[in-house]
UniProtKB/TrEMBL annotation:
Gene3D superfamilies: Homeodomain-like. It comes from Veillonella criceti. It comes from the Bacteria. Pfam families: HTH_23. This is RNA polymerase factor sigma C. The lineage of its organism: Bacteria, Bacillati, Bacillota, Negativicutes, Veillonellales.
Length: 253
């Protein structure tokens, strides 16, 4: 799995494994080939009740292995089948592991203005972080300090997947048409279809690259262009990326 790529765990699957089958977060992580922390985060995101039981760990043995044998936090987590954050917390309680010191340095005023401007124009916090080569946490911190309302795009929208599959495979509707029908983004439609095991057609939306770039030069964000042209955000970005003069090229008023 590529760096920075989000692990997709459908809510029904996680609910079945965790609640119905009674599997632990560690077992689920092993089953789905992801970290235990990822499983716990998804449980919180999906509002699935988490079992309130504290894992018992042999504290003296763990301290000995950490101090004398030189085992790291992740090695101990693997040994005791728990998350590395759990091990780190227990070691801190014993006074063995020191808490990390905060090294946050605020970006320059110009960069802060860029963050607010990009975000207001529809760019995501992750995109801004990559563009300005800073962390996503820093981007969100600056936005909150400036009183900018954060868009919670990680909220999962309910969609009847069976209907999507039927309309896509039997009625041959495109992801764009389905997005309009359900009032969601084409990317969301594509994601749900993939989760259902549907192979997506290679639909190419015919967008006029010149028009897309012209709108961008006139000051519209990729998100605004996508909404006005009735296409996905990724389709607009793809056209802009193909245009060599895209980066930083906008008309100055």
């Amino acid at each position: 799995m590529g760096k920075g790529q989000q692990v997709v765990i459908p809510r029904p699957l996680l609910k079945q494994l965790y609640l119905e089958k009674g599997m632990s977060t560690w077992s689920i992580a092993k089953e789905l080939h992801c970290s235990q922390d990822t499983v716990v985060r998804r449980l919180h995101e999906y509002a699935i009740p988490i079992h309130s039981r504290r894992k018992e760990l042999p504290m003296k043995e763990m301290a000995y292995l950490y101090l004398k044998e030189g085992l790291g936090v992740k090695q101990l987590a693997k040994r005791y089948q728990c998350s590395h954050t759990t091990v780190a917390a227990r070691l801190r309680n014993l006074g063995i592991l020191a808490s990390k010191q905060s090294t946050y340095i605020a970006p320059s005023l110009r960069k802060q203005q860029q963050i607010i401007s990009f975000y207001s124009n529809g760019q995501s916090a992750s995109w801004i972080a990559r563009r300005l080569q800073i962390s996503r946490w820093t981007v969100l911190t600056i936005l909150r300090q400036a009183g900018v309302r954060i868009r919670h795009s990680n909220k999962r929208i309910y969609v009847n997947v069976k209907e999507l599959v039927y309309l896509y495979t039997q009625r041959h509707m495109t992801t764009t048409e389905l997005a309009i029908l359900y009032n969601i983004k084409p990317a969301t439609v594509a994601e749900r279809l993939k989760e259902a095991g549907i192979h997506l057609h290679g639909n190419q939306l015919k967008l006029n690259t010149y028009e897309v770039c012209l709108r961008y030069q006139d000051g519209q964000s990729p998100l605004q262009i996508a909404e006005e042209l009735g296409c996905s955000y990724s389709a607009v970005r793809k056209r802009l990326d193909q245009w060599q003069g895209y980066k930083g090229a906008r008309k100055t008023s």
